[in-house]
Amino acid sequence: MALKNVALKTKSADAPQRVKSGGGIDVYLKRIFALMFGAVAVTALASYLTIWGGWFVYLINLQTGGFTWLYYVLLFGGLALAIWAQVRAFSFKPAVGAALLALYAILTGVVMTPLIVAVLAVNPVSILSAFIIAAVMFACMALFGYKTVKDLSFLGIFLMMGMIGLILVGLASFIWPAMLGGTFGTIVCFIGVLVFALFTAYDMQNLKRAYAVLGDGTQKNQLAVLGALHLYISFIAMFQYLLSLLNRN
After folding, report:
1. What would the DSSP string read from start to end of 151-173?
2. Does residue 89 lie within any of the structural domains?
3. What is the pTM assigned to this prediction?
4. What's the CA dihedral at 82, 103, 240, 170 to 10 degrees?
C-alpha cells in the first residue's frame, strides 16, 4: 500500500525524534480524524436517506432474497474506487482525494443498507451498541498504534493475508449464503473484528512515521486523506462485523 511504502522510508529508531522536532503533527492528526469521521457521517447519512427514500428495494431481489445487479455494481465499484484512490493517492490534489473519499463513503452507506434494514427489523438497539463498541475499540487501538514504541511492521503480511481471506469468504458467501451461518460465520466475524482492530494500530504507526519523512505540505495533506481512507475502512469494517456478531441469532 502507498501508506506502508511511505512509512518504510523512515527508520524506526529516529522516527519519534523527527516527529517531535518537525512539529505540526497534532494538526496533521486532527485533519486525518476530521476527514475520517466526516466520511463516517456521510456514510450514515447516505444509509439513512437510502432507507428513508425506500431506494434500498432496488438493492434486494425480493423474489430470491438475494441482491440485485445494482447492489453488485455499487459494491465492486466502491472496492475498485478504494483501491484506485490508494494507488493514486499522491497524484491527486488533496481536495480531489477528499472528494473521492466522500464518494466512497456514499457508496459504502448505500451498500450497507440491506444489513441495516434487516437489523432494524429485529434488533435496532444493536446498531447503537455496535457503533459504540467499534468506536471504543478504534480509539484504543489508534492510541496504542500512536504511542507504542514496538515496531508493528511485522503485522503487515498477516493482516493483508487476513483481509484477503475475509474478502474471499465474502465473495464465496454470495454463491453459498449458508456458509456464513452457524459457528463458521461467528468465527469469521470475530476474525474480521480482530484483523481491522489490528489494522487500526498498524496504520496509525505508519501514519506517524510517514509524517516524519514528508516535508512538503501538499504531500502531508495527501497523506492525511490516504490515512483517513485507511482508518475509515477499518472502522466501518469493525462496525459491520460487530453488528453481524450482535445479530447472529
Report:
1. --TTHHHHHHHHHHHHHHHHHHH
2. yes
3. 0.87
4. -40
In a domain, 1, yes or no: no
CA end-to-end span of the chain:
37
Smallest Cα–Cα separation from 112: which of 187, 36, 42?
Answer: 42
Q: Are 28 and 220 in contact (CB under 8 A)?
A: yes
CB 200 within 8 A of CB 231: yes
Which range marks the domain in which residue 227 is found?
23-245
Q: Which residue has the cell 496504542?
A: 144
> Which among 36, 18, 24, 32 has a CA at the least distance from the CA of 209?
18
CA dist., res. 74 & res. 106, Å (int): 10
Residue 5 in domain: no
In the Cβ-directed half-sphere of 56, how many Cα atoms lie within 13 Å?
A: 21
In a domain, 18, yes or no: no
Coil, helix or strand at residue 106: helix
> What percentage of the chain reaches a pLDDT higher than 90?
54
Question: Tell me: the pLDDT tens digits for 182-224?
Answer: 788 889 999 999 999 999 999 999 998 888 777 667 788 888 9
As to burial, measured by CB atoms within 10 angstroms (0-12 exposed, 13-18 middle, 19+ buried), residue 130 is: buried
171: left (phi over 0), alpha (psi -120 to 50) or beta: alpha
In whole angstroms, what is the distance from residue 205 CA to residue 249 CA?
Answer: 37
| Counted domains in the chain | 1
> Which of the four pLDDT bands, split at 50, 70 and 90, describes residue 88?
confident
